[in-house]
């Protein structure tokens, strides 16, 4: 089917829609609940409490070093579930496809979604496909929603963040944003930034398992707006101050170089396989070791802490000992990054 | 804010994104779980079994007689949950907005979503907003996902359909499809078709409550592809034959007139506030009365039945007594109808 393209009729609910669903989605996602093709997936509830989230993905280009829109659409929603302390279980996926998209391209993306779902241990149990005319979408948009289990697990809320908490990141920041920017603009960086796009359920489980219950106060994946947006949301949302040590924040050399050339602050650039954790001070060392012991957290670092001083503000200490405010990002930043 | 328009920066994850969320979405959806603004909504599980579904909405134009993309996005997903026999409980909503959309337009749509959610008895607990550049979307696309409760309720599956079943519709077919087509093309029909867009959870509850457990075999809302797609899916999917009496199928006069002018078969046109039911023969009368006794089912009718003859085929008996095959719709039909 790789020579063919998506037609408006693939979205009409008629014969071509049914063929597309059977030949592509059901085959790759290979889930019995999905294959039942009922109006809704019927599932065993994963426990007394659920986590539920959604994200739309409009990344441009559709493919970039380290991933594609399909892998991103699975990891993004899985990670939002994981950040609440939930075990990701079920995903839905809704596709808005532009007429003319090559079926071979769609198949590569669907294959990547299936692989990412296996990696994350989630089942894609519900879906929808719409087709819009040429010019109606930029190739393909995917919206995923996810359901996770909170039974027996930690339910994390940012209001648990308190002065004294240590802040950790699980790896270098900005990889995803710069990988997408470089791919979009065709910039010849060597080495090229590679997206960190990965499902973080396992990393979160390792972290939570290593710390006494309640000592991991909050988790967040720094996607749009990057690390700067997360720490500013925490500072203003919880009325605390945040201090960061600039030279403790891991940034890959190739990302730093790309940022300098493009005039982008790496702290504003998106990650898709990295988390920020606020941890009780007594568990910071334990948390760091747990992250570093996981393949997706090898580059973890303690980057600062929470303070009762300067509530609502994030203060960055530069390598030379100067202080500057790290503001909430404004303006267009990096559009279409996820 | 009605003079303003959506900018790329509204989707950047920075300051304008936060303002849009607080000033628009949180205010209208007014849900404490949503307002907590965590990465995932944390919910009490609605029971031991869940229904989970998603739909993307790309309807053009955004507003049409009887509804808009917001009302449609709530009703469509609520109805998919209801068709499985579930009680709709929680919704997520992801917005893909084109740069330049008037904030006043977005606010009207969000207001309509909030109203439809109240009507349906569901809470909008999770959301996401992305902005794409001019030309990147046709104004606005909305993808909703929904979670419903199946505890204590009937879990409906189309494989319960059996020869002897009676088929009912809850009201006239094709209203939604023709309302959208007429609005899109600016066709001056008098009276103009009006979309039937409505949440059907209450109608389903009335129907299931009136029949002995297990006697309502399957429900489906005939959206894309209309009644013809539903009955053909049932016939081919379950290996049964279906007989329909053409003059028993309710079609409003204005819809029939519009269909004739446009060369559209009303049985191919979408409904968004109507259901098709396959009911055990002994409960058909009871089911009909239950539907007719509900405000959204006043126009209900028995339209045919399931047979062991001609498996996989749908045979329509015309008012003159002739028989013709009602095929699965093919081709482009009515694009961008939902």
3D structure, described in words:
The structure is a homodimer of 338-residue chains. The radius of gyration of chain A is 21 Å and the shape is globular. Chain A starts with 14 loop residues before the first helix and ends in a 13-residue tail after the last strand. The first copy, chain A, folds into two domains: 120 residues, 2-Layer Sandwich (60s Ribosomal Protein L30, Chain: A), CATH 3.30.1330; 168 residues, Phosphoribosyl-aminoimidazole Synthetase, Chain A, domain 2 (Alpha-Beta Complex). In chain A, helix 4 links the parallel strand 5 and strand 6. Chain A has nine helices and 14 strands. By secondary structure, chain A is an alpha+beta fold. At the A-B interface, helix 1, strand 1, strand 2, helix 3 and strand 5 of A face helix 1, strand 1, strand 2, helix 3 and strand 5 of B. Strand 2 of chain A pairs antiparallel with strand 1 of chain B.
């Amino acid at each position: 089917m790789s020579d063919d393209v998506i037609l408006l009729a693939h979205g009409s609910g008629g014969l071509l829609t049914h063929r597309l669903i059977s030949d592509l989605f059901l085959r790759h996602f290979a889930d019995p609940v999905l294959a039942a093709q009922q109006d809704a997936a019927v599932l065993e509830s994963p426990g007394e409490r659920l986590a539920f989230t959604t994200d739309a993905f409009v990344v441009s280009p559709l493919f970039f070093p380290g991933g594609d829109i399909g892998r991103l659409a699975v990891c993004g929603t899985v990670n939002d579930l994981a950040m609440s302390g939930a075990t990701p279980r079920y995903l839905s996926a809704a596709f808005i496809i532009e007429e003319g998209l090559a079926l071979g391209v769609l198949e590569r993306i669907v294959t990547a979604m299936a692989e990412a779902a296996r990696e994350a241990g989630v089942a894609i149990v519900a879906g929808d496909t719409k087709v819009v005319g040429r010019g109606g979408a930029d190739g393909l948009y995917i919206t995923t929603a996810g359901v996770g289990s909170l039974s027996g697990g930690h339910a994390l809320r940012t209001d648990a963040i308190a002065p004294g908490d240590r802040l950790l990141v699980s790896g270098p920041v900005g990889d995803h944003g710069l990988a997408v920017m470089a791919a979009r603009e065709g910039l010849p960086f060597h080495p090229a930034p590679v997206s960190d796009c990965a499902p973080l359920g396992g990393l979160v489980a390792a972290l939570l398992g290593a710390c006494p219950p309640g000592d991991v106060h909050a988790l967040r994946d720094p996607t749009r707006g990057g690390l700067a947006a997360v720490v500013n949301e925490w500072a203003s949302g919880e009325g605390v101050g945040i201090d960061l040590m600039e030279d403790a924040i891991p940034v890959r050399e190739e990302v730093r170089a790309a940022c300098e050339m493009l005039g982008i602050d790496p702290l504003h650039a998106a990650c898709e396989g990295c988390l920020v954790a606020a941890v009780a001070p007594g568990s910071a060392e334990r948390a760091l070791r747990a992250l570093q012991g996981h393949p997706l957290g090898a580059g973890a670092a303690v980057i600062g802490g929470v303070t009762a001083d300067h509530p609502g503000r994030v203060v960055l200490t530069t390598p030379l000992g100067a202080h500057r405010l790290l503001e909430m990002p404004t303006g267009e930043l990096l559009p279409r990054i996820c």
